[in-house]
Task: structure prediction
Amino acid sequence: MPETPHTLPASERLRGVKAISELLDRGKYLSAGCLRMCHAPSGAEVSRILVSVPKRSFKRAVKRNLLKRRIRESYRLEKAILTGAPQDMMFVYTAREVLPFSEVRSSMHTLLEALGR
Result:
């Protein structure tokens, strides 16, 4: 089955203690708007992402899950910007309030554009 550009399969999710600790050890950080990104070259054949929304900022799981869905969806729509070698990426939501999807997507676009350069 051919992979369409606007999907986010399980193979593009970053999991495992070893992979995450390697990313945090050798990753570089970028920030834009409401998002902060840690990225490092990946040994996988595709770019992989990890999404985090701090419990300290949003006590209710409903809001954290909403923000994680918005971040994943904005990545899914903007990932065509990425070219070159696969990257492992971690996105952390840094704003203290729930922002609309358009702001999350514009922050994601800015980050991925900076990474693509």
